[in-house]
Design brief:
CATH superfamily of the largest domain: MetI-like
Number of helices: 31
Strand content: under 5%
Strand order of the largest sheet: 1-2
Subcellular location: Cell membrane
GO biological process, one term: phosphate ion transmembrane transport
Shape: globular
Membrane topology: Multi-pass membrane protein
CATH topology of the largest domain: MetI-like fold
Keywords: Cell membrane, Membrane, Phosphate transport, Transmembrane, Transmembrane helix, Transport
Helix content: over 70%
Distance between the termini: 81 Å
GO cellular component, one term: plasma membrane
Radius of gyration: 33 Å
Number of strands: 4
């Protein structure tokens, strides 16, 4: 009945223990080494930002000790001179106050945004909501090409085309506030438009279908639902455009006029808007190589610190705006909602529907009255479509304008075919091209390991919710939006003056590596994060270590994205001017000393030729340089696009696509298309004429009056009923 309790058998100490080890397996030396390298590279990237910030702040200390921080910011008196001539009281002595320069920079930013923001919003809405997928792809491809145009090419174009346009309106010179503001608006527009377009595309389609299903018009859905749903991201896009305007250097130097007098308040409205002005970044670029002494140099570094502070504020605002929904949810959850448990008992439902509050005619009237007036809706829709159409046409027309001018004038510059070999007694385009290629190679050698290590840390090792990870991302965004002229003065002071390196490709590549690391890190992180988790889990299931999964699965599957990031980084290196101008030199010569050679890249030579002004041979050769540069940049952008869409293209060859496109172009029925379009236009005109006719407006007025009368009767009845109850 009762079983005897069996004796416990004590294990023999000499017998092996076959118990399964549930603890984590020991890491191999290779895993520890790889993890250590990844952490070290990440810390180097973080330290770079801190070193730059501290260095700029320390170099700014002398001018703040001399004048004080607030006097430096608010006093409008920028008079560089030797250190012994400084005087706060004597107006003939040197003094450094950037109040006027800050005012000019902010006014230029405001005017640029007045042009850019409406064009960005209306054109992005039209592209996202009204264009087909193929048309969207084409138009956004054009916008991407605009974003790839180097800033010095924008400056050259503005000097040649936009400046004379404003001179015809009353400007004294082609370099003035309006020329700079108008040009900067279109320089910032591609970035703003791309970010806004992406924000609109991320709005769920269910929002659109629900709105349209309720009878709301397409235009009201676009502005009231889609635009409102993506407002925080649109605001972030505008703020990023502000950062682009504030930080632009070389183009502004060419087109702003650079007068120390600042805004002209004595010659009326025209004199004011066509003032010759200086900006914060432009002042550094103009004077850092020819500073009058240690005080002057410290004042220029102080301007760099102000730019740093502005960038930090801009990034914090973007962070705050992008997290608006999370903040709102947090405070909403804090509120305690009181629920009445007897609420359902208080609701009186008439199941048999015997006592109707309204008859059928009254209900029909209420429904009609609650909807928007049809004529009003048509007018609003027409106005919205007009602005969207117009904005998109303006953006595409401006793109065609700048591309057309550069291509035509660049081809006309081929009459100076000798410029490929020699320009004004110096070397030619080939020398600048070789210098640019060596700069790209040297920069990527330094930048790729640091960027890839940081990206691996963020995707594979970092805790996504930890404060340190968020801090690293914030620092990377901060580095990405910092004006390149700040990196330029850092490279000039540290690598050339402090470490005694010559102005060379090597010194310039160290500086440019800091410039492109944020961009490469973001691109590499996106590529690594797109590798499906189930592939990695399969590798872990087969017993592979984290390092083997990283090198055998993650990186090979992300290779297309990594190569695309490198190509885009190459395009950025080609387009940069300010850091290269300060650390490489401007002499056009063959890089016979290799990486220790000084010289000029394609963009720095464009700047040197454009700064001569006056048109003629120099401008013609500058457009030839611009054409070569844009061909190179556009080729890299095209190549990155091919790498990105490699899986989508399948086995269809490019020449088959080109053949099909050409066949469709040849056999397209243009007459029928024009006839249908003309008939549609005539019908729309008839509809508009009918809706605006006196007879129709009189009928609408009578119907509205009748509805208001019935609604008033219903409201009075409800008031009496509620009073009796």
């Amino acid at each position: 009945m009762f079983h005897k309790k069996s004796k416990e058998v004590k294990p023999d100490k000499n017998e092996p223990d076959f118990k399964t080890n549930s603890s984590r397996p020991k890491r191999t030396p290779s895993e520890i080494g790889v993890k250590g390298i990844v952490y070290l590279l990440t810390l180097i990237v973080v330290a770079l930002l801190l070193i730059i910030l501290v260095f700029v702040a320390v170099k700014s200390g002398k001018i703040f000790n001399k004048e004080g921080f607030f006097k430096f910011i608010f006093v409008d008196r920028w008079q560089p001179g030797p250190d012994n001539s400084w005087s706060a009281d004597n107006t003939t002595g040197s003094y450094y106050g950037i109040g006027g320069i800050i005012a000019s920079t902010l006014l230029m930013m405001v005017i640029a945004l007045l042009f850019a923001v409406p064009l960005t919003l209306f054109s992005a809405l039209f592209i996202s909501e009204y264009m087909g997928k193929k048309t969207q792809k084409f138009v956004m491809g054009v916008i991407k090409l605009m974003a790839g145009i180097p800033s010095v090419v924008w400056g050259l174009f503005a000097i040649d085309q936009i400046g004379p346009m404003f001179m015809a309106m009353g400007a004294m010179t082609n370099g003035n506030l309006m020329t700079a503001s108008f040009t900067l608006s279109f320089m910032a527009l591609p970035t703003m438009l791309s970010l806004t377009y992406n924000a609109l595309q991320n709005v769920p389609d269910a929002y659109r279908y629900a709105s349209l299903g309720l009878g709301i018009s397409k235009e009201e859905t676009t502005f009231g639902i889609v635009r409102r749903s993506s407002t925080p991201k649109i605001v972030s896009a505008v703020i990023m455009g502000m950062a682009r305007v504030i930080g632009e250097t070389m183009a502004v130097i060419l087109i702003a006029g650079n007068s120390a007098a600042g805004l002209n308040t004595h010659d009326g409205f025209n004199g004011f808007i066509f003032s010759s002005v200086k900006t914060l970044a432009g002042t550094i670029g103009l004077e850092i190589l020819e500073n009058a002494g240690s005080l002057h140099e410290s004042a220029l570094f102080a301007i760099g610190l102000i730019l740093f502070i502005l960038v930090i504020i801009i990034n914090l605002v973007v962070l705050l705006v992008s997290n608006t929904d999370n903040i709102r949810k947090y405070f909403h959850n804090k509120k305690k909602v009181k629920v009445n448990p007897h609420r359902s008992a208080q609701i009186d439902v008439d199941v048999n529907n015997e006592n109707k509050a309204f008859n059928d005619y009254e209900l029909k009237t209420i429904v009609k009255a609650s909807a928007a007036n049809k004529t009003s809706k048509s007018v609003k829709s027409g106005i919205a479509l007009f602005f969207m159409w117009t904005s998109t046409i303006i953006v595409l027309a401006f793109a065609a304008w700048i591309f057309g001018v550069v291509i035509i004038k660049g081809l006309m510059g081929l009459k100076h075919i000798e410029a490929f070999v020699t320009v004004k007694g110096q070397a030619g385009i080939f020398a600048a091209l070789f210098t640019t290629i060596l700069l790209i190679i040297s920069t990527l050698i330094f930048a790729i390991p640091l960027a890839l290590g940081t990206a691996i840390y963020l995707t594979e090792y970092a805790n996504k919710k930890s404060f340190f990870t968020k801090l690293i991302r914030f620092m990377i965004n901060l580095l990405a939006s910092t004006p390149s002229i700040v990196f330029g003065i850092f490279g000039l002071s540290v690598f050339i003056i402090m470490f005694k390196l010559p102005m060379s490709i090597f010194a310039s590549s160290l500086t440019m590596a800091i410039v492109v690391i944020p961009m490469l890190t973001s691109n590499f992180e996106d590529a690594l994060s797109l590798v499906p988790n189930n592939i990695k889990e399969a590798g872990y299931g087969l017993g592979l270590s984290k390092v083997k999964v990283l090198f055998k699965i993650t990186i090979p599957n992300a290779m297309n994205g990594l190569v695309t990031g490198v190509i885009l980084g190459m395009a950025k290196i080609i387009g940069e001017t300010a850091p290269v101008y300060l650390t490489l030199g401007t002499a056009l010569r063959m890089p016979s000393e290799g990486f220790l050679a000084s010289g000029a890249t394609l963009t720095t030579e464009i700047y040197m030729l454009a700064s001569e002004g006056g048109g003629g041979e120099a401008t013609s050769i500058a457009f030839l340089f611009s054409l070569v540069t844009m061909i190179l940049v556009f080729f890299l952008n095209w190549l990155s696009g091919k790498m990105t869409n490699k899986k989508e293209t399948g086995s269809l060859k490019w020449y088959i696509k080109l053949k099909n496109w050409w066949s469709n172009l040849i056999h397209f029925d243009y007459a029928k298309w024009f006839k249908d379009g003309w008939n549609k236009f005539k019908n729309n005109c008839k509809i508009i004429r009918h809706k605006l006719s006196y007879k129709h407006l009189k009928e609408v007025h009578y119907e509205n009056k009748k509805r208001k009368k019935i609604i008033k009767i219903i409201e009075e009845r409800e008031e009496r009923r509620s009073y009796e109850d």
